[in-house]
Fold:
Amino acid sequence: MQTLLRDARQCAVCTNTTTYTCVNPRAYIDSRDLDGRPYELSIIALPYWVQQCGTCRYCADDVRLAHPDARTIVKTTAYLAQLNDTGYPFLAREYLAAAHVCRMTERYADAGWHALRAAWKCEDMLHPMAGFCRNQTVQSFELALHHGHAIGANAFENAVIIGDILRRNGDSAAALRYAQQAGECAVDNLQSVVATQLLHAIDGGIRTRIVRAAPTS
Ligand SMILES: [Zn+2]
Structure:
């Protein structure tokens, strides 16, 4: 099965049609890291889980789809400032711009996933803004949970993903709370083992904290 496909897509904001390289939605996922990253697949797919319209600069996982407010959001100073911020790798800027649109339209789980993919890009480059992207991910995921939106498949996955992102940022106390929550939500032996692994990773300092979180201002 091909992992990447070429597809002509019409932007839902400005109607411009561009041919994009897209990730096959049926692409095989071997396994995921505790923060939800399908690492093997992401080596190929990470540049293509976001699309930017070359005409109106709308960023989304699929430019054919847009909230009615997106037309206004892509013209705002805040959106364009994010997209033009050279303090981030180019791909991370596209993900963070897509996250901004999602946040402004109250799609908090999608906003979190976009910000997390920005963090993965920064991690791969050993870029210092990875911590900021993870912070933004956690904020969006916590807002999603507050509004009753799904992040992972169930409460157990939600807790593991957020706990591991916090661990990677070196926030052991908050990570521990989510790891304990994951343990309480575990419904079978495998989930209990995963929750224990996360606890040990936090306790043992098996930290993949490549960088420090940057100021959020
Ligand atoms: Zn467009």
Summary: The beta strands are 4-10, 17-23, 51-52, 59-60. Residues 207-217 have pLDDT under 50 and may be disordered. The two ends are 44 Å apart (CA to CA).
